[in-house]
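Here is one chain, start to finish.
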Amino acid sequence: MLKVVPKEAALIFKEGADCSILISDLHLGLEKEMAAKGFRIPPYSTKMMARIDAMAERYGANRIVVLGDVKHSIGKVEDIDWNVLPWFFDTLLDVFPSVEVVPGNHDGGLKTLLPSRVRLHPSSGTVIGSDEKVGVTHGHSWPSQEVIACARMVIGHSHFRYEMRDKFGARSKEAVWLFAPYDIPRLLEKAGHSHGAKGAGELMVMPPFNNLVGGQAINAKGGFDFGPVLSSGAVDVKDADVFLLDGTRV
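Its structure:
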């Protein structure tokens, strides 16, 4: 069973006695970039850890899977990464017997920062579950054949927002979930995989777990064209369902 955690950018996946939490786009270390722009905020990683700990206790979760962009820096490891990431994942290992990561486009050099007990998957993703299989990946690169063929695929990466305006012209952007059908054979072909699969699957695009990161408005021109999967033509974005974190359908 796969379901959205109410008012959170997280999914719960239950199978038998096992319960997994899925989150994406932590962007740990974002505070350094914000400080350079003049914004002084307390360490946000502690707030995210508190949210994770509350979900783990509420659902009795014994595994967490992070779908990429664990760190915010791109292409190199910053000093703030050495301060934040080892602590963050050591704390996760105190909460969960199993901690897994699918790396994203921000995660160069990530392996050097992770405790040895953290399982690092390929960037093409992995499949969780045995009876009900779910393919999980970050979304910045083509998923593996196995992930696409699951017929239920979860990605992050896009940071989708919905832009709203009031009668005075003020704008606000809210994080959203996106659920859309995809053509399995067409997506496999676009990704360069040989296949004999048929039918349609369901794509779930997660909001970023870090509330401080920006994102593009899906109700703006070209808003859906982000990453190879959503730009492939195999995802029917016209039939997509879009929801705010509080469950409001937009």
